[in-house]
Amino acid sequence: MIYNRSRGLDANMSARGATKEAILTTSINLFNQYGFENVTINQICQEINVTKTAFYYHFKSKDELISEFFSFDNLVSNDDLLNILAVTDLAEQAIKAMEIFVKHIVRSGVEMTKENYRVHLRNQILPLDKSKSALLGSIIPALLQRAKDAGQIKNPASAEELLDTMCNLANGVILNWAMTGGSFDILEETRKRFEILLVVK
């Protein structure tokens, strides 16, 4: 009896996760197709045949949905972690960890990136906010500190100051990229800026 109830709960939790993912994926596709402002919550719900109650169970608003889509911690896959850990240079690990967000920006495209920044500006927070991310808040600073201790980073600033500056650099480069219609290689530009900041070459 307990086993069946537990199985039912697991199935229910799995269904909720699938519904949330379906809402997120469908919404992003609709935003890309019609524009963020032109897509309504009703339209999203009709597209995947869920109730507005189901939508609001997972997301308070379209803004929250965009924030979730661009949430740093939600972007990290096992492949990303393996890619980071495959590198022995600690400074390079920190740069690769920061590049996860930049790669997601490229995959999302210019228009979704602009919307992400609009949403964050409306809510008066930065897209790369270390207080809202375990990776940004603790893992990358630890990598930076270990790289400093190993002499791989020459910049005398603290690991926390370096992370803050990396986030600000990334936000600036991403915003510039979006405002110029994706006119330059954003990965190359952010990497160059990170290497200059960290004094790794």
Automatic annotation (TrEMBL):
Domain HTH tetR-type: 17-77
GO molecular function: DNA binding
Gene3D superfamilies linked: Tetracycline Repressor, domain 2 (1.10.357.10)
Record keywords: DNA-binding
Keyword Transmembrane helix on entry: no
DNA-binding is among the record's keywords: yes
DNA-binding region, residue range(s): 40-59
Domain of life: Bacteria
InterPro entries (alphabetical): DNA-bd_HTH_TetR-type_CS, Homeodomain-like_sf, HTH-type_Tx_Regulator, HTH_TetR, Tet_transcr_reg_TetR-rel_C_sf
Identification of the protein by name: TetR family transcriptional regulator
The organism of origin for this protein: Paenibacillus woosongensis
